[in-house]
Amino acid sequence: MSLLEVKGLRRDYGALRAVDDVSFELDAGTILGFIGPNGAGKSTTMRILATLDAPTQGEVLLDGRSLVDAPDQARPLIGYMPDRYGTYDDVTVWEFLDFFARAYGLKGALRRQRVASVMDFTGLHPLKDKLTSALSKGMKQRVALGRTLLHDPKLLILDEPADGLDPRARIELRELLRALADQGKAVLISSHILTELAEICDTCAIIEQGRLLATGNVAELLARSSGNGAELLVRLAVGAEGDAAYARAERLLLEQPGIGQVTQEAGGLRVRLTLEPGSTLAQVDEAAARLLAVLVMAGVPVCAFSHRSLNLEDAFMTVTKGRVA
Ligand SMILES: Nc1ncnc2c1ncn2[C@@H]1O[C@H](COP(=O)(O)OP(=O)(O)OP(=O)(O)O)[C@@H](O)[C@H]1O
């Protein structure tokens, strides 16, 4: 049995169906990325899972018990970080965490121990006497994450926690989330930053206009949505031949197996290579090498050739059509 089971969740706001028949499961010790464009229904779903809103229809089981019927019993198991979190300006980091630890009902030595352990885990100890207003965005976000951990919840629901963070703070957040999953927590994280989620998550769920379009691990999503493949960039030293060299290269490429699309751009040719679903990265590399050999042996003046494997962003763009509720 999964820690979290979401079954046929629906949320209507008047005539608008913000969440439409959403079902998924999340196991302890795993991270699920919830991906979707603006207005897709991510925050609405997360608010329901955090017991801050009730579904129009559907069921959510947390540790086997209905979160919809008994939200009070579920709350101690849940840590929720909304997309807009506040920190009070005139309190220190320690005061902020201690205040919320009291709100969670933690008392005496246990409270002190939980606040200290959360500050250790999030690396906030050196900043404990600093005013939260004086912290950087990355550090404020750590304080907010620390707040959600004080009562040691089993399920973490984090709504766009990486939004607005610089690359270093994102990497640090990623490491913290992985450590939390290793401790056995189930983590649900939403984001627009698709490539970030690919590195962070065990599985992903793509949502658009309230409906789940695809779920699975990143490799499965790729295989299902676009097939394994790569995008090649080919630049030519055209010399006297001019644009005819590009036309020649394009014709040659389109004759090769697995080439679905070739577009000419200012920087060269952008080529979509699609392999059998389930192909390995090594097979993608080999196919790219074969194409380069074909071009060179045909006398095409290739001066730059690069390829990148398709990633979650490509899967997302293929699966969603850019529709926003
Ligand atoms: N309280 C509300 N009343 C009416 N409509 C709402 C309410 N909350 C959300 N919506 C609508 O429900 C849809 C889903 O919104 P939601 O905030 O869940 O999307 P999201 O995927 O989190 O988007 P974003 O990435 O922009 O935060 C949107 O069309 C939104 O306008």
Strand content: 25-35%
What's the rounded overall pLDDT mean?
A: 87
CATH fold annotation of the largest domain? Rossmann fold
The number of helices is 11
Backbone structural class: alpha/beta
List the helices and strands in order: EEEHEEHEHHHEHEHEEHEHEEHEH
> What is the terminal-to-terminal distance?
33 Å
Q: Name the CATH superfamily assignment of the largest domain.
A: P-loop containing nucleotide triphosphate hydrolases
Hetero compounds: adenosine-5'-triphosphate
What share of residues is helical? 25-40%
Largest sheet: 6 strands, mixed
Indicate the CATH architecture of the largest domain. Answer: 3-Layer(aba) Sandwich
- For the record, the CATH class of the largest domain is Alpha Beta
Structural domain tally: 2
- How do the strands of the widest beta sheet line up side by side? 6-7-8-3-9-10
Q: Could you name the ranges where pLDDT drops below 50 across 5 or more consecutive residues?
A: none
Tally of DSSP β-strands:
14
Give the C-alpha Rg: 24 Å
Shape: elongated
Task: Describe the overall structure.
- By secondary structure, the protein is of the alpha/beta class.
- The protein folds into 2 domains: 4-216, P-loop containing nucleotide triphosphate hydrolases (Rossmann fold, 3-Layer(aba) Sandwich); 227-309, 2-Layer Sandwich (Alpha-Beta Plaits).
- The chain is built from 11 helices and 14 strands.
- The strands form 3 sheets. Strands 6-7-8-3-9-10 form a 6-stranded mixed beta sheet, with helices on both faces. Strands 2-1-4-5 form a 4-stranded antiparallel beta sheet, with helices on one face. Strands 12-13-11-14 form a 4-stranded antiparallel beta sheet, with helices on one face.
- Helix 3 crosses helix 4 (108-122) and helix 8 (218-225) crosses helix 11 (312-319).
- The chain starts with a strand and ends in a 6-residue tail after the last helix.
- The mean pLDDT is 87.
- The chain binds adenosine-5'-triphosphate.
